[in-house]
Every structure is written in structure tokens, then in C-alpha cells.
């Protein structure tokens, strides 16, 4: 920190000296001898500056084209949610408008800077007002922005709207953020998430679920986010510590996660993980990444280090707020699968009620005693994941 402060002081001192030098030169304007540089622009200077303006606008256009060619492949590609195409369409419309306006206005700005550059004997035409011009450059942006904002509001309402009738068949998932990882909690057989508060955090109950709430007993905690294709997912977001942002780029979804309150977002996944892995654009990206990793692995092996593992595509839940030193590493894998696969995965999970009970029994058992046997091998899951009652046998064999 001391070195940084010293560097800042040195830079500021240099800037101060540079400004004092400029002021000194300005005080000498008009006092120099013939042939000396007085600091006043000549016709030749203005002409050079005019051509430089043209060169700069050309650079802007060429660099824009180069950027689209060079980095155009890093865009996300096919959206993996039902609302994704509408989101992408809004983005595309906005970008087309930006490019059109940028091309026209930048050209006019630099062209007029060249055409009306300073020349000896040339006097600028002055007029106080032009109602037609004022009307044009006011009404055109107003109309364009009105249409764009109206379209954006329509898209926003459509994306954020959750059908009340669809709620009954929806899957409720809580996404819990803390420095620096994510946890998730699924609603159990009752279809409702139990209440929670950070004051209840203890042992296996790392999300602070209120175990006195009857709706909490069958909730299921997990370290991976599994979503069924074609099913409405309603997310409830909570934060344990600071402001986070749940960002799921391939689903075109993001929601701030705010301490002390619950935020909500819902969408329907439309492409499974395996289907997305077969997408041509994703396959090209994976191949490119693995080419880079192969070259890096050769260097590591030559140094006697372990080679990098091949990269395979996965959906990710990321944090899109700078929440601390390890913010960059705050991510969770998202697996989109069929409803049957989700049922199987959830069935293998332990409910929070079972986990808390097991922990309590383990703490109460005397030292050296055998670990208590599972009270019941049946796992209570959501309606969409629950096996038929007659197929569930208790550990007692009854």
C-alpha cells in the first residue's frame, strides 16, 4: 500500500509540473521572435489536424469491423431458455440502432471538423437559431427512444411475468449466496420452501433454514443446480453476507441477491446440457479451448507439472457482482436434464429434516458409540420427483 501511495504522489507531481510548464509557455505567446513557435495554430497545422480527424474516424470503422471478426465468436450463441430468443432480439435491435447512429454521427462529426477547419481569412457563419434543425435532432431521438423503451418494457414484463396457474406445477428452488460459493435448496413433497434466516445457521443447516417450520422438513439441499427441461422454475434468491448477483448467461437470466430480502426470478429451460453440447457453436468453442489447453499442457508437462484436463461444456451459475477477493471463483455447475433424471437425482438426496436429525443424534451419542442407523430409507422429494408410495420400503421392512 505504501508503494502505491508513493507511485500516486509521483504521478500527481509529474502532472503538476507538466501543467506548470504549459502555463509558462502560454504566458510567452506573442512575446517570441520571428520564426519562433508561438503556440498559435497555422493554416498548415489546421490542415494536418483535419486529415488526422479523417484518419481517426477511419480507424474507428476499421477497428469495429476487426473486433466483430476477431471476437465475434465469443458471444453466447443459442439461448437455453424459453424467454432467451426475445431477450436476444431486444439486444440485436439495440445494437443495430447503436451501430447505425454511431456510423452516421461519427462521420459527420469528423467530416465537419475537417471541412470547417481554421483558415486565414475564413469567417464562420453565425446564426442564433434554426427551428427546423432543432425539431429534427430532437424529435428523431425521441421517437427512436420511445419505441425502444416501449419494446424493452414489453419484453421485461413478459420475461418477469410468472403465470399464477403455472405456479401450481412449478418447481421452487432457493439459490443461496455467500462468500464465496452457492448453495441450493429444493422444495420438498409439499411444494413449498420452508422459512429461513441467517440466525438459524448451524452445522449441516448452512442456509439457516427454520426447522421449526413444517414446510422445511422435506426441503432438499444440494451443491449442484439440476433443472428439468420444459418445466417452470421459480427461483428464490437470498444472500448471507454482501450483495451478490446470480448470473446464468446461457439462460439470459440475472437477479441481484440482496442481504436481508428475498428476490425472485423464473424461467423455463429449453435445452438440456447434452443437447447444448451438440450445438455447432458450442462444439467449436470447446474445440478452440481444448486446443489452447493442449498447448498449455505441453508446456506444463515439460516443466514436470500435471497436464490440464480436457474442457467439457457446462452451464454455470456465476456471481456478477464484485463481492470480494475470491469473487472470480464463485460459480456453480447447472445441469439441465429430463424430468426423469431429475427425479432420480432428487430421490438419492437426503432431506434437511433427516440431515439435521442425524446430526443431532450423532452429537447426542456417547463417545465410541456406533453411528445411528438411518431411520428411514425413503427420501421425501418434490411432487415431480417423488416415487410411488407402494414402491417405497422402510428400513424396518414393514
Q: How many helical stretches?
A: 9
Characterize the biggest β-sheet: 5 strands, mixed
Topology as H/E string? HHHHHEEEEEEEEHHEEHH
Distance between the amino and carboxyl termini = 68 Å
The amount of beta strand, in percent, is: 5-15%
Low-confidence segments, given as residue ranges, are 367-398
Mean of pLDDT: 83
Over all CA atoms, what is the radius of gyration?
Answer: 31 Å
Question: Which structural category fits the helices and strands?
Answer: alpha+beta
Helical fraction: 40-55%
Neighbour order of strands in the largest sheet: 3-2-1-5-8
Question: Based on CA inertia axes, which overall geometry fits?
Answer: elongated
> How many β-strand stretches?
10
Annotate the secondary structure layout:
Elements: H1 2-27, H2 43-71, H3 84-115, H4 131-160, H5 164-167, E1 171-178, E2 181-186, E3 220-222, E4 225-228, E5 233-239, E6 244-248, E7 253-257, E8 263-267, H6 273-277, H7 280-302, E9 315-319, E10 331-337, H8 339-347, H9 352-364
Parallel strand pairs: 1-5, 4-10
Antiparallel strand pairs: 1-2, 2-3, 5-8, 6-7, 6-9, 9-10
Walk me through what this model shows.
The chain is an alpha+beta fold and 398 residues long. Helix content is 43%, strand content 14%. The protein contains 9 helices and 10 strands. It has helices at 2-27, 43-71, 84-115, 131-160, 164-167, 273-277, 280-302, 339-347, 352-364; strands at 171-178, 181-186, 220-222, 225-228, 233-239, 244-248, 253-257, 263-267, 315-319, 331-337. Strands 3-2-1-5-8 form a 5-stranded mixed β-sheet, with no helix packed on it. Strands 4-10-9-6-7 form a 5-stranded mixed β-sheet. The longest helix is centred in the first third of the chain and has 32 residues, at 84-115. The radius of gyration is 31 Å and the shape is elongated. The protein starts with a helix and ends in a 34-residue tail after the last helix. Residues 367-398 have low confidence and may be disordered.
Amino acid at each position: 500500500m505504501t508503494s502505491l501511495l508513493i507511485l500516486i504522489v509521483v504521478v500527481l507531481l509529474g502532472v503538476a509540473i507538466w501543467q506548470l510548464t504549459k502555463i509558462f509557455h502560454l504566458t510567452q505567446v506573442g512575446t517570441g521572435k520571428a520564426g519562433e513557435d508561438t503556440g498559435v495554430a497555422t493554416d498548415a497545422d489546421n490542415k494536418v489536424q483535419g486529415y488526422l480527424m479523417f484518419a481517426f474516424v477511419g480507424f474507428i470503422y476499421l477497428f469495429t469491423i476487426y473486433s466483430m471478426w476477431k471476437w465475434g465468436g465469443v458471444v453466447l450463441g443459442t439461448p437455453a431458455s424459453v424467454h432467451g430468443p426475445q431477450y436476444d432480439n431486444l439486444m440485436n435491435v439495440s445494437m443495430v440502432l447503436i451501430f447505425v447512429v454511431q456510423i452516421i454521427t461519427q462521420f459527420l462529426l469528423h467530416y465537419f471538423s475537417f471541412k470547417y477547419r481554421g483558415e486565414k481569412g475564413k469567417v464562420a457563419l453565425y446564426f442564433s437559431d434554426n427551428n427546423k434543425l432543432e425539431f429534427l435532432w430532437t424529435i428523431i431521438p425521441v421517437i427512436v427512444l420511445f419505441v425502444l423503451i416501449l419494446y424493452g418494457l414489453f419484453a421485461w414484463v413478459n420475461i418477469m411475468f410468472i403465470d399464477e396457474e403455472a405456479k401450481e406445477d412449478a418447481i421452487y428452488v432457493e439459490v443461496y449466496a455467500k462468500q464465496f460459493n452457492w448453495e441450493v435448496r429444493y422444495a420438498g413433497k409439499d411444494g413449498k420452501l420452508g422459512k429461513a434466516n441467517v440466525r438459524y445457521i448451524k452445522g449441516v443447516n448452512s442456509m439457516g433454514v427454520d426447522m421449526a417450520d413444517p414446510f422445511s422438513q422435506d426441503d432438499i439441499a444440494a451443491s449442484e443446480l439440476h433443472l428439468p427441461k420444459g418445466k417452470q422454475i421459480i427461483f428464490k434468491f437470498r444472500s448471507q453476507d454482501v450483495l451478490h448477483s446470480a448470473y446464468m448467461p446461457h439462460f439470459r437470466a440475472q437477479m441481484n441477491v440482496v442481504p436481508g430480502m428475498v428476490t425472485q426470478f423464473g424461467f423455463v429451460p429449453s435445452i438440456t446440457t447434452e443437447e447444448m453440447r451438440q450445438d455447432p457453436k458450442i462444439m467449436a468453442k470447446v474445440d478452440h479451448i481444448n486446443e489452447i489447453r493442449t498447448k498449455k499442457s505441453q508446456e506444463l508437462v515439460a516443466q514436470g507439472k500435471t497436464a490440464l484436463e480436457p474442457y467439457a461444456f457446462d452451464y454455470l451459475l456465476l456471481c456478477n457482482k464484485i463481492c470480494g477477493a475470491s469473487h472470480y471463483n464463485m460459480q456453480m455447475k447447472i445441469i439441465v436434464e429430463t424430468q426423469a433424471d431429475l427425479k432420480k437425482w432428487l430421490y438419492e438426496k437426503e432431506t434437511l429434516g433427516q440431515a439435521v436429525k442425524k446430526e443431532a443424534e450423532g452429537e447426542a451419542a456417547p463417545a465410541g458409540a456406533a453411528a445411528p442407523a438411518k431411520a428411514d430409507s425413503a427420501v421425501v422429494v418434490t411432487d415431480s420427483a417423488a416415487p410411488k408410495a407402494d414402491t417405497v420400503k422402510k428400513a424396518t421392512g414393514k
